[in-house]
Give the backbone structure.
Amino acid sequence: MNSKRDFISIDDFSNEEIEVLFVIADKMNLLLHRSHGVLAGHLMGSLFLEPSTRTRLSFEAAMNRLGGRVITMSDAAASSFSKGESLADSVRIVSSYTDILVLRHPHAGAARLAAEYAPVPVINAGDGGHEHPTQTLCDLYALRQTKGKLDGLRVIIYGDLKYGRTTHSLALALARFGTDVLCIAEPGLNLPTYVRNRLTAMEGISEHSLVVADENSVFSGEEREALLYTKNPQGWQLSDNALKLAGIAFDAIYVTRLQRERLAQDDADLGQALPPIDARFLSHGSFQDAVVLHPLPRVDEIDHEIDGDPRSFYFRQAALGVPVRMALISFLLGHEMMRVERAPKRDEREWKKASCANPNCVMTKEGDYLQQKIWKDPQERVHCVFCDEMLD
Ligand code: CP
């Protein structure tokens, strides 16, 4: 029986597994500059069919630091994808050369498809606008380093929440750990419905629609629509459907850039309307002890003037990607154990309908050779197994 573990969604690891993984990452951090070669003889396939700096190089650095080796494909145009080879066939081939695959791909669900065809563990390094679960591990690890815990925090997720795949995985993870998540989106770029459904399907999580208003400085007197996901709504000052930021201390603000490369035709006019995070923004009392996180790259949503502020943690957060990914690779290759409760498996079934309506789903893009599968949430809503969008 093939008992390989993949890491496709943040849902694939239980909270307990994430906590153990971070203990392993602590150990990796100490060993980072020593050659220990535990994965000597292992080969990682690094398939990046979208641009990347941090994810690709931190995965490759992680494998090299563990004593393993890496083969890379970072230009689809120079590969047989350009001749029309399917993702499934490409994955079959590359996994026959390697022991583990890391895949970044422009289509939602591509890593799940790859995991079906690869006999070796597959890691999702970002699939379209869907998920980026290893970035979430880095984000959680950064929060744990700065705040000492992951539960009971108050975190703002800020920016393009529609196409910013890191925000999807992160909101799901934080809610699971019992952290209050306030989502402040660029207008028209709120969390996709399937992410909201997954959040509200979690035991004890409620969603509130809010108007976030601050008379002092943060929003220049303007009001913004926001969504709050919380396990303890009584803990917040809610009045007349408005959350007053004043008096509420946040632990972190997680900022994302506008994902211009993913904006659909209908969204093409959308631009950055939220104020950048700058010294004035951080001067508000609510952010006195808030760390500023960002998956990077940044464009202009964080002012360079705050790079030296002790609350700015985004460069350190990126550096933590190496020990976190060392821990993940070691675990998936069986060199580290986690004797804790595993995440429950989704109830997946085959489905008669042949296609998914999401134009960016790998099911839509790869087409004919794929058998559509579904999973059902606790409300019996049917979701595409690849991109998680709801099906009719
Ligand atoms: N955070 C992140 O995914 O960065 P890259 O696109 O540079 O890999």
